[in-house]
TrEMBL record:
Keyword vocabulary terms for this entry: Methyltransferase, Transferase
An annotated Gene Ontology molecular function: protein-lysine N-methyltransferase activity
Entry superkingdom: Eukaryota
Secretion signal span: none
Gene Ontology CC: mitochondrial matrix
Name the record gives this protein: Electron transfer flavoprotein beta subunit lysine methyltransferase
Record field: catalytic activity: L-lysyl-[protein] + 3 S-adenosyl-L-methionine = N(6),N(6),N(6)-trimethyl-L-lysyl-[protein] + 3 S-adenosyl-L-homocysteine + 3 H(+)
InterPro entries listed in its UniProt record: Ribosomal_L11_MeTrfase_PrmA, SAM-dependent_MTases_sf
GO BP terms, alphabetized: methylation
Species this protein is from: Tetraodon nigroviridis
Annotated family: Belongs to the methyltransferase superfamily. ETFBKMT family.
Length: 219
């Protein structure tokens, strides 16, 4: 972990001020960082999804910070947690217990570091794939930017349906309107709760996407 932490310190920048949640500090890959321009084969880990603050995660985090009752006193699971922003927003909003789940073990390290940046104890971090597993300990599941692949989307739909129907778990999804979500069968079961215009810098980084949204899953 020490070598990974050192690598993250040297190759990311404390950022977030140009996001939808400027009050949350995050270590991210920015244009000022070496690997923004460096040949990708020199990157020593798997693709660094944890180094980008994706627009769906920004929407979820903003929504939770603006609506703390969604989290207050609750047990929250952030699936595909990446940089940990939504887990951090949950903690800031008064969640009783937060678990950040990402299959990339580096994401757990950066989530700890980002929690420290925001003067928070880190959430519990789980690196096993929880999609499809039996869970009963959570009141709220968060999914930011997870509907980017049809096969994954189908797995998520089956799992979320089970979580809601068996345990009454509430599910919030953050997504900027990617084609994979808009064309998925789950789309007809989503109720829009919020829409945010993306900051200019985020629009530029996301190929012209202009808005991002939070949806409630209602099977």
């Amino acid at each position: 972990d020490d070598s990974i932490r050192q690598f993250i310190l040297e190759n990311t920048e404390i950022s977030g001020q140009h996001s939808l949640t400027p009050e949350v500090k995050l270590r991210l890959l920015t244009p000022n960082c070496r690997f923004w321009r460096e040949r990708p084969e020199l990157w020593p880990f798997r693709d660094p999804y944890w180094a980008i603050y994706w627009p769906g995660g920004q929407a979820l985090s903003r929504y939770l910070l603006d609506n703390p009752d969604e989290c207050k006193g609750k047990r929250v699971l952030d699936v595909g947690s990446g940089c940990g922003a939504s887990a951090i927003a949950s903690r800031l909003s008064g969640a009783a217990h937060v678990t950040a789940n990402d299959i990339d073990t580096v994401a757990a390290v950066v989530t700890h570091m980002n929690s420290e940046l925001n003067s928070l104890d880190p959430p519990a971090c789980v690196s096993e794939n929880m999609i499809g597993s039996q869970i009963d300990a959570f009141d709220l599941i968060l999914l930011g930017d997870m509907f980017y692949d049809e096969v994954l989307g189908a797995s998520l739909h089956r799992w979320l349906d089970s979580c809601v129907k068996r345990h009454g778990t509430k599910v919030l999804i953050g997504d900027p309107g990617r084609a994979q979500l808009e064309g998925h069968s789950i789309r007809g079961l989503l109720q829009q709760l919020a829409q945010y215009e993306l900051p200019e810098a985020v629009k530029e980084e996301n190929y012209g996407l202009t808005c991002t949204r939070v949806w409630l899953y209602c099977p």
